[in-house]
TrEMBL record, chain A:
One example GO MF annotation: transferase activity
Subunit structure of this chain's protein: Heterotrimer of A, B and C subunits.
Xref: SUPFAM superfamilies: Glu-tRNAGln amidotransferase C subunit (SSF141000)
Function, in words: Allows the formation of correctly charged Asn-tRNA(Asn) or Gln-tRNA(Gln) through the transamidation of misacylated Asp-tRNA(Asn) or Glu-tRNA(Gln) in organisms which lack either or both of asparaginyl-tRNA or glutaminyl-tRNA synthetases. The reaction takes place in the presence of glutamine and ATP through an activated phospho-Asp-tRNA(Asn) or phospho-Glu-tRNA(Gln).
The keyword Nucleotide-binding appears for this protein: yes
Protein keywords: ATP-binding, Ligase, Nucleotide-binding, Protein biosynthesis, Transferase
E.C. numbers: 6.3.5.-
Name of this chain's protein: Aspartyl/glutamyl-tRNA(Asn/Gln) amidotransferase subunit C
Catalytic reactions of this protein: L-glutamyl-tRNA(Gln) + L-glutamine + ATP + H2O = L-glutaminyl-tRNA(Gln) + L-glutamate + ADP + phosphate + H(+); L-aspartyl-tRNA(Asn) + L-glutamine + ATP + H2O = L-asparaginyl-tRNA(Asn) + L-glutamate + ADP + phosphate + 2 H(+)
HAMAP family: GatC
UniProtKB/TrEMBL annotation, chain B:
Superkingdom: Bacteria
NCBIfam families documented for this protein: gatA
Protein name: Glutamyl-tRNA(Gln) amidotransferase subunit A
Subunit structure: Heterotrimer of A, B and C subunits.
Active site annotation, chain numbering: K79, S154, S178
Coiled coil (residue ranges): 8-68
Keywords recorded for this protein, A-Z: ATP-binding, Coiled coil, Ligase, Nucleotide-binding, Protein biosynthesis, Transferase
Keyword Nucleotide-binding appears in the UniProt entry: yes
Family, per entry: Belongs to the amidase family. GatA subfamily.
GO biological process, one term: translation
Domain (Amidase) ranges: 24-466
Function: Allows the formation of correctly charged Gln-tRNA(Gln) through the transamidation of misacylated Glu-tRNA(Gln) in organisms which lack glutaminyl-tRNA synthetase. The reaction takes place in the presence of glutamine and ATP through an activated gamma-phospho-Glu-tRNA(Gln).
Length: 95, 486
């Protein structure tokens, strides 16, 4: 299938990415070449085949519901780009 | 004393016999790094001060006659996507340029508990996405055999560090071939363990159902020693598998008499450099001479492996890398007026081109209307690929193939064409998709460049891979070399 610049802009929006006018031409072309490559799977007959999301039959690993030690708050915040009074700080999200 | 290219097992014995101290060893390694790092560029961060401090502690323990493990006092390099408390872990990305992890990965903790000496953090393709280390935001590591060529990737820094003797051994990580391909290009031993054998806790996630950490070493015995020290169940990784502990050094000397070796015809087709194939056939003959039985087999879905991989890995990556939003850690854009602008600008400025491409491909394959056609279909083909291996392993003990379709390529040769770069993993991705273990080891040189042989085993049967590799290593008849870095 053909990938247009509009498709790329739509997917970018979903992925929270943006591309400049100069970037988008080259990106669309390379992106399309990857999608074209993976289209090869359309040849395979997968009728009745179960998907493998995971190679081992491990399901729903549970642990005992016990309170453990948490990481120290200062440590948690040590890499924060912006913080205030023990919280991560971001721009206002409510109007 | 000349310290060139010693292995873990050799240095372990020297330390115990007091022929050398750990401090002396660490100092010599930093001297070596000073000498060649300018040319090879294996490391992103060096941790000399901590390394020397730790070495002195180990020397004190040795002086007191304390019983120490195989790795004690011996220098190691760690790939920079494995977190190290208090030491920058960048993933080769501007996004994490200044990230100092507040905790250790389980493998880091295991190394530290064994008194290993971490020399530094090695270069990689950004977030381990690439096959050449050219995608690092900081530097391009060179192949020590020919500085105009790539060392492979994504664990290119780890492989180059080991072969140029800037470290005794290293840890790498593999999602589609990122341990074996650089091991092959640099002429060292690299093992991608069975999925679930080594804890992924603290490995910055790329594709969670494929990622595994593994050893990159100078010889097969070292590979077994390192695996002994990093394998094991971890409650912090719910995908790690709880099994009885195995001593991987035990089986090494068992030999290969009666071993059933399969050569998959799809891994020896026209896309593979015939000179590379000839080296593998020569190596297989050595094993045959030692009593192994060799047959040709088919892994019929091999031709779909790379397409399957380039849906599943980017899909998982697009989800995993959603965490990089400029809020809790990592890069944040300078100017923003809203939360959306903060997210979009942070991610667009912080990620490099290949990472963005994979996030985009993954997002596309998971998006409404395309999920079944791409993602779900790929997971079904994955079932078929996995079954191919299960069928062969009903009758055979190991599968042998080349690790890479070509010799190490030139820096810049494939960088502008993503598909041609992806094709360098054509012989390794199936193994990650199937979750089985595989090792690459050197089996000769062509035009002064190393060739890698891949040995694939059954799930959790690393011992059989290692004994096959050991038998070949001890009986191989090519002249072993070390690179002259120039």
């Amino acid at each position: 299938m053909d990938i247009s610049k509009e498709d790329v802009k739509h997917v970018a929006k979903l992925a929270r990415l943006e591309f400049s006018q100069e970037e988008i031409e080259d990106f669309t072309q390379k992106f399309a070449s990857v999608i074209e490559y993976v289209e090869k799977l359309k040849e395979v007959d997968v009728e009745g085949i179960e998907p493998t999301y995971h190679v081992h039959p491990i399901k729903n690993v549970m642990r005992e519901d016990k309170v453990g030690k948490s990481m120290d708050r200062d440590k948690v915040l040590s890499n924060a780009p912006d913080k205030e009074t023990g919280f991560f700080k971001i721009p206002n999200v409510l109007d | 004393m000349d310290l060139n290219n010693f292995t873990i097992h050799e240095l372990r014995d020297k330390l115990r016999k007091k022929e050398i101290s750990s401090e002396e060893l660490v100092n010599r390694y930093f001297k070596r790094i000073e000498k060649v790092e300018g040319k090879v560029e294996s490391y992103i961060t060096l941790t000399k001060e901590e390394a020397l401090k730790k070495a002195k502690e180990v020397d004190e323990k040795l002086a007191k006659g304390e019983e120490l493990g195989d790795l004690a006092g011996i220098p190691v390099a760690v790939k920079d996507n494995i977190v190290t408390e208090g030491v920058k872990t960048t993933c080769g990305s501007k996004m994490l340029e200044n990230f100092v992890p507040p905790y250790d990965a389980t493998v880091t903790k295991k190394l530290k508990d064994e008194d290993a000496i971490i020399l530094g953090k090695t270069n990689l393709d950004e977030f381990a996405m690439g096959s050449s280390t050219e995608n690092s935001a900081f530097k391009t590591t060179k192949n020590p055999w020919d500085l105009s060529r790539v060392p492979g990737g994504s664990s290119g820094g780890s492989a180059a560090a080991v072969v140029s003797d800037e470290a005794v051994y290293a840890l790498g990580s593999s999602t589609g071939g990122s341990i074996r391909q650089p091991a092959a290009f640099c002429g060292i031993v690299g093992l991608k363990p069975t999925y679930g054998l080594v804890s992924r806790y603290g490995l910055v996630a790329f594709a969670s159902s494929l990622d595994q950490i593994g050893p990159m070493t100078k010889d097969v015995e070292d590979c077994a020693i390192v695996l002994n020290n990093i394998a094991g169940y971890d409650k912090m990784d719910s995908t790690s598998v709880n099994r009885e502990k195995v001593d991987y050094t035990k089986a090494l000397k068992e030999g290969v008499k009666g071993l059933k070796i399969a050569l998959p015809k799809e891994y020896f087709d026209d896309r593979i450099d015939s000179r590379v194939k000839d080296k593998i056939y020569d190596a297989v003959k050595v094993l045959e001479g030692l009593g192994a039985e060799v047959s040709e087999v088919s892994l019929p879905h091999s031709e779909y492996a790379l397409s399957t991989y380039y849906i599943i890995a980017p899909a998982e990556a697009s989800s995993n890398l959603a965490r990089f939003d400029g809020v809790r850690y990592g890069y944040r854009t300078e100017n923003y007026n809203s939360i959306d602008e903060l997210f979009i600008k942070t991610r667009s400025e912080g990620f490099g081109e290949e990472v963005k491409r994979r996030i985009m491909v993954g997002t596309y394959c998971l998006s409404s209307g395309y999920y079944d056609a791409y993602y779900k279909r790929a997971q079904k083909v994955r079932t078929l690929i996995k079954k191919d291996f299960e069928d062969v392993f009903k009758k055979y003990d190991v599968i042998i193939s080349p690790t890479t379709p070509t010799l190490p390529f030139k820096i810049g040769e494939k960088k502008e064409d993503p598909i041609s770069m992806y094709l360098s993993d054509i012989l390794t991705v199936s193994i990650n998709l199937a979750g089985v273990p595989a090792l690459s080891m050197p089996c000769g040189y062509i035009d002064g460049l190393p060739v890698g042989m891949q040995i694939i085993g059954k799930a959790f049967d690393e011992s059989t891979i290692l004994k096959t590799a050991y038998a070949y290593e001890q009986n191989s008849n090519y002249e072993k070399k070390t690179p002259e870095i120039k």
